[in-house]
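User: Second chain of the day. Same drill as before.
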Amino acid sequence: MPVFGPAQVRIFLIFSEDEYSPLRVVTQSEAGMDEVELTLRHAMRPFPSLQLVRNSVYLRVAHRAYSKGTALAEIQRILQVAPDQTVAAGDHFNDLPMLDRTYARYLISPQNSVAPVRARVREQGGYLATRKAGLGILEGLLALGI
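Assistant: Same format as last time:
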C-alpha cells in the first residue's frame, strides 16, 4: 500500500488520453482524498496558476483560468445569454466556481450537496432544495418559477 503523509492511503494515479485531464488522482475514501488534497495544496503553492478540482474521491489539476464558472461564461458569450438569464446548479466542490452571481442569477443546491456548496448558495441567496440530485434541481426550478 502506498504511503502518503502521516496515514496510509491507497492512491491510484490514472493517466488518460483526455488532453484536459491527463493526470487524475483517485483514492478509496473521502478521508483519503482530504489528506491527498491538503498535501497537494501545500506542494502547489509555488504554482499559483494551477488549482485542484475535486469531486468526491477524484481530483485533477487544472489551470486556474479554466473552471465551470469560466466555461459557463464562455457559453453565455457564444449564445449571447446574460447571467441574469442563467441558472447554475451544483452539488460538489468542482461546481463552486460557477455557483456565483457573476455567472448566474439563479443558483440551486440539491439537498445532497457537500456543505461548502450549500454554504455558497446560501450566502448568495440561492435556493437550497430539500430533495436530492435531479429532483432537487427540479424543485429549485419550480420554486424559482422557471
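Residues 3-63 form one domain.

User: Great, on to the next one.
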